[in-house]
Amino acid sequence: MPLDPQAALAIKLAGDLPANLTHAELRRAYSEQRIKMLPPAPPIAIARDVSILSPEGLIAARFYRPHDDGIACPLLVFFHGGGWMLGSVDSYDTICRRLAIKGRCAVLSVDYRLAPETTFPGAVNDAYAATLWAARNAAELKIDPQALAVGGDSAGGNLAAVVAQLSHDSADFRVALQVLIYPCTDMSREYPSYLRNASGYMLTRAAMAWFISTYVPSPADRLDERASPLLRPNLAGLARALIIAAEFDPLVDDNEAYALRLREAGVPTRFEFFPGMHHPFFTLGAYIDDAAKAENMIAEEMRALTRSQMA
217 near 119, Cβ under 8 Å? Predict the structure, then answer.
């Protein structure tokens, strides 16, 4: 179908993600642009910054709870998007508040280290360490460690998929749900949608190439499952998945490929395709109604974790 009119307006207002700026300039431009395009930030009972001690140093994060009732609830550990180079807890504050309130769950938003200052696998290590910390501190956080989800958009979706795989292998904690919003799942090659949606839809083919080469400079490392979770030989036994994809996205083909492989491995997988939408629509809720629709899908899955634990 053609580009949705709301998506077209957002693209007109924001334009393609520029690939000719320094990383510092791009971070500033990205943050300013995305904050302006978010819906209103709702008040929430708890929103506090935390510092997580990891083997590689302190990890900043922000913890949200919609109610200060002391009752254990599900937790969504959320990793923001931005090509492993951009984004922050602050630029995703509104989204995490909305997910916590709609999903009746806690959210831990993780400020993992960014490239080029920290390259692969630094972001993976931070994402895993933060999730492990949450599981080990479940009582203090008043969350249910058996109802723990990992999620994120774009680069954050990549990290969530990787954490779900690593947790399955280590058994350090159990991931009950992975929420993957147009994730990058395979850095080893370009899919046809990279060419089909190469430019004009905010995330460009050129920007993806820059992100990947900056975060994972070595082509050999792009074959590592921690960079390209789609390349894992066996996906059986992983947490059930919600995958959200957009039609006009360079990543849509590898989104579909990962959903197919999960299903073939017997993993319950809900694949939600948004026709007429482009890659960053989830973060453009001030202009795009489908952003709220995607939030509602995620909230539905988080609420289902509560029901499954009560059953």
Answer: yes
Q: Are 151 and 160 in contact (CB under 8 A)?
A: yes
**For residue 93, what are its two tokens?**
């504050």
Catalytic residue among 88, 154, 193, 228: 154
**CA gyration radius for the chain?**
18
* pLDDT per residue as tens digits for the range 111-130: 999 999 999 999 999 999 99
CATH superfamily of 5-310: Alpha/Beta hydrolase fold, catalytic domain (3.40.50.1820)
Q: Is 188 a catalytic residue?
A: no
* Catalytic pick among 249, 253, 254, 290: 249
154 is catalytic: yes
pTM of the model: 0.97
Max Cα-Cα span within the chain: 53
pLDDT digits (tens, 9 = 90+) for 57-102: 999 999 999 999 989 999 999 999 999 999 999 999 999 999 999 9
- Name the nearest CA neighbour of 101 among 257, 299, 307, 238: 299
The question of whether 249 is a catalytic residue gets the answer yes
Domain boundaries, the chain: 5-310
Residues 6+ positions from 220 with CB-CB distance below 8 Å: none
Residue 198, SS3?
coil
Q: Is 244 helix (H, G, I), strand (E, B) or coil?
A: strand
Q: What is the distance between the alpha carbons of residues 287 and 151, in angstroms, rounded to a whole number?
A: 23
Q: Which of 91, 153, 228, 279 is catalytic?
A: 279
